[in-house]
Amino acid sequence: MIGEFKTFISRGNVMDMAVGIIIGAAFTAIVTSLVGDLVNPVISLFLGGLDFSGLFVVLGSGEYASLAQAEEAGAAVFAYGRFIMAVINFLIIAFVVFMLVRAVNSLKRKQEEAPAPAAPAGPTEIDLLMEIRDALKE
Predict the structure, then answer these.
(1) Cα separation of 103 and 101, whole Å?
(2) CB–CB of 56/27 below 8 Å?
(3) For the chain, where are the alpha helices, taking DSSP H only?
(4) Residue-wise pLDDT tens digits, 76-111
(5) Integer Cα distance of 11 and 4 in angstroms
(6) pLDDT tens by residue, 3-51
(7) What angle, 0 to 180 degrees and rounded to 10, lies between the N-to-C axes of helices 12-33 and 80-113?
(8) Cα Rg for the chain, rounded, in angstroms?
(9) Cα 18 from Cα 8, distance rounded (Å)
């Protein structure tokens, strides 16, 4: 059983998957920072600081000035603003990832399209025939 486990772990697919998960987690941190620290502030600037995350409806009795107060009091709330912000953030993150993948693919295409260095020119057929002729004369 331990031998089978060692064989399973040492397979390339498992190691590739582990590396992919680790790199994916690191990439998630980069994309989250890009969206949260760079993209969202610019969008917020254009929308006048509009933030949907504070929108909610109390499901029951009570009046609360903010979602945080309602949650502190233990009131049941329908926090639809958070959902709207989650959808907006998802769309922004998906677009940023799309742009990053598009840029990487563009770089790959440019590398593939780059002309390969020309092979050194060898002797032509005429040169070879002349060499043969000269060798036969000797």
Answers:
(1) 5
(2) no
(3) 2-10, 12-33, 40-46, 67-72, 80-113, 125-137
(4) 888 888 888 888 878 887 887 888 889 988 988 888
(5) 11
(6) 887 777 676 677 778 778 888 888 888 877 887 788 778 777 877 776 7
(7) 120
(8) 32
(9) 13
